[in-house]
Amino acid sequence: MNSNIFNELSLIDYAALGWFFSCWVGYSFFSEQSTLAHRGLVGVSHDYRLAWAEQMLTREVRIVDSALVGNLMTSVSFYANTTIYIIAGLMAIMGTLDKTMSATDLLPFTHSSGRALWELKLMLLLGIFIFAYFKFTWALRQLNLLSILIGAAPHVSAPESERNTFSHRMGTVNTLAGDEFNRAIRAYYFGLATLCWFIQPWLFIVMTTAITLVLYRRDFLSHTLSALRD
User: Fold this and answer.
1) Residues whose CB falls within 8 Å of the CB of residue 90, separated by 6 or more in sequence, listed in order
2) In this structure, how many other beta carbons lie within 10 angstroms of the beta carbon of residue 91?
3) CB contact at 8 A, 103 and 198
4) Contact 177, 135 (CB under 8 A)
5) What's the rounded Cα separation, in Å, for the pair 218 and 230?
6) pLDDT (tens digit, 9 = 90+) per residue, 124-138?
7) Strands (E), 76-224
C-alpha cells in the first residue's frame, strides 16, 4: 500500500471514518456497559440465561439442554465458516482490483478515488470481517465450555448453595458467549455500512447512522424485547 495513502483522503473521507468508528465503539459501549444496558436485549437475555441454568439444575436428565447448546454452536459455526468465505472473497478482489474499480466507476454518484485509497477501503473491510471471525470462534469455544459445564452440573439433590453457585457460573459463561456472538454480528452490520464508502463518503455516513439506529431499535425498542419483558 502506498505510504502516502492518507494524503489521498479528503476531508469528507476523514469525517466519514471518524463517524463510523464513533458510532461502532460508542454504540458497543452504550449497549453493553452503560447504565441502560440492563434494560436492553443484552441485559434481559442474561436474566433468561440465568433462569435456564437454574431450571436445568432441577432436571435429572439434561438432554434437552445439551441439544440447545448444540443448536447454538451450529449457528455460530455457520457464521464463522461464512466469514472465512467473505475474507477469501475480499482477498480475491484485491488481486483483481483494477477490474473492480472500472466496474464501480460506471455507477451513478460514485466518488472516484485512486488505487491506494481503494486498497485502504478493502483493508478496512477485511479487518472488520477478521474481527468478526475472531469473535465467532471465541463464542464457539465458550459454548464448548458451556457444554462441559452441563456435563459437570451437580445433581438435583446437591445442596442449594452449590446449585446456586453453579447456575450463576453457567449463566455467566452463556452470556459471555452470547456477547461475543453479538459483537461479531454487529461487525457484520457495520461491514455493510463500509461497503457504501466505495460509492460515496456521504452515503457511508448515512448508512452508518442508519445501521446504528436499526441496532438501537432492535436492542431497546423492539417487539421482541417487549415480549421478553412481559
Assistant:
1) 122, 125, 126, 129
2) 11
3) no
4) no
5) 16
6) 999 999 999 999 999
7) none
Rounded to whole angstroms, how far apart are CA atoms 169 and 102? Answer: 55
Rounded CA separation 33/42 (Å): 10
Contact 73, 138 (CB under 8 A): no
Give the DSSP per-residue string, 113-138. Answer: --HHHHHHHHHHHHHHHHHHHHHHHH
Q: Which cell is 188 given?
A: 457484520
How far apart, in whole angstroms, are the C-alpha atoms of residue 104 and residue 89? 17
User: Rounded to an integer, what distance in angstroms lies between the CA atom of residue 181 and that of residue 79?
Assistant: 9
Q: Model-level pTM?
A: 0.88
From 49, 65, 77, 84, select the one nearest 170 (Cα to Cα).
Answer: 49
Residue 59 backbone dihedrals phi, psi, to 5 degrees = -105, 135
pLDDT range class, residue 112, cuts 50, 70, 90? low
pLDDT above 70 (res 106): no
**Could you give the CA distance from residue 91 to residue 89 in angstroms, rounded to a whole number?**
5
